Known about the structure:
single chain; Muramoyl-pentapeptide Carboxypeptidase, domain 2; 7-stranded mixed sheet; 4 helices; about 35% helix
Amino acid sequence: MRTLASLVVMVCLLGACAPMAMFASSSGSGYSGLRTDWGTFVSSSNVNALCLSPKLRLLIWDFEGHFGKKVVMNSGYRTPWHNASVGGAEASMHTKCMAADFYIPGVQKSQLIAYARSNGLTGGLGCYPGRNFIHVDVRDRPRGYTGPVTFSGC
């Protein structure tokens, strides 16, 4: 019975987010020359968008639906070796298919940060001053947190 209830909840969540994300635009010069990996725009061939947890996929769709534009992922899943080579944290959510670094062409970074802070799916948020992207992950928030765990300049 729990499995059936979980399935119904997941279908409802997907049904609420997916249609809005399906109408997100990918037109304009900000998408020129970019490739896609498993339906997600990526900034380089080194970005792996295959391994995204369902909750992370929902969060990305939520961003796309809210802003009406597709995200461009700078970093998705990382192997432990790749994560170490780019200076990622040892227990990085990227190695667990639970994190993405992205931007949306034409959307100010401050708008992405504000939306991530207000989104209940965002468990962690990294802002990286001087960079055009944000980091979001879907870790469980610690008890008592009403917003995401923030780090790196947020």
